[in-house]
Amino acid sequence: MNIGQAAAASGVSAKMIRYYESIGLIPRTVRTESGYRVYSDRDVHTLRFIRRARDLGFSVEQIADLVSLWHDRERASKDVKTIALEHVGVLERKIRELQEMASTLKHLATNCHGDARPHCPIIEELANDEAVPPPLKPDAKFGPLGKSPAR
Fold this sequence. Notes:
Elements: H1 3-10, H2 14-22, E1 30-31, E2 37-38, H3 41-55, H4 60-71, H5 77-110, H6 121-127
Antiparallel strand pairs: 1-2
Helix pairs in contact: 1-3
């Protein structure tokens, strides 16, 4: 099947399929004499695996590890579990950060009159030069889709 058919069958866009191929997440496919990519049912199955992993928020690096483990019939399930639990920790940290942001914004909104007056604690907080910016998060070094530039 061609890339459009593989995209439709897997739920992964053609652009992302080309990207995954360029970074080695999926193997380079066979090409026709005219240069068109040809995908097998196995390729589509791998793309679906990747899509489900992305839907769960795994990074590209983690997905590469999971795909490798998936193809390794001698794998230890503890290796898969370790990746999953590390990701759960990251998700829980993000949830806490989002809850803190929501709490701060609720507090500011509660203290904003929300009327025709110009005074607004939300704007004041955003404009506060005295506020200390939060430290960069460890995952801030990753680019789009969690891909490390060094990879």
